[in-house]
Amino acid sequence: MDVSILERIGDGFTAFSETCVNFLGRLFGSSNERLVKGLGLIRSRNPEQPNQVIQGSLLDQVNRLEPQMQALSDAELRELSDKFRARLKDGETLDDILPEAFAACREAGKRTKNMRHFDVQIIGGIVLHRGNIAEMVTGEGKTLVATLPAYLNALEGK
């Protein structure tokens, strides 16, 4: 049997399988897209359209706390860390205080560095806190993202 025939058959199977994977990816989304959506962000496929935040999601909880954090004085914002530590001592988990801690960290970043965490950065912070890898392109603010889980996990004092 001619090897070139086997190569063509193999190429045909490869093309077919890639087509199937691409179709299923468009139909169901990638595992990363499903994870991001599960955290509350639906990315717009059109760059002219804004991303959507799912009501009641973790991201939505953080966003809803923003006006409350903006209303705090600098001293009150600093005092939140002690309140979070006390809540952890009383049995709450890091995941319980995550929305408030991330909202406080977002506000602190805005006040001290004039840099507000965007929704995709909040999602990246949640992903990192959960021990996963967050892939971000150049310019998306990886350093700013890292402040969120760093602050949250530092509250335990470990």
Characterization of the model:
- The protein has 158 residues and is mostly helical.
- It has two domains: 1-28; 55-154, Rossmann fold (3-Layer(aba) Sandwich), CATH 3.40.50.300.
- Helices cover 68% and strands 3% of the residues.
- Strands 1-2 form a two-stranded antiparallel ribbon.
- 21% of the residues are buried.
What is the fold's blueprint, element by element?
Blueprint: H1 3-28, H2 31-39, E1 41-42, E2 52-53, H3 58-64, H4 66-70, H5 74-89, H6 94-113, H7 119-129, H8 142-154
Helix pairs in contact: 3-6, 5-6, 6-8, 7-8
Characteristics:
158 residues, Rossmann fold, two-stranded antiparallel sheet, mainly alpha, 2 domains
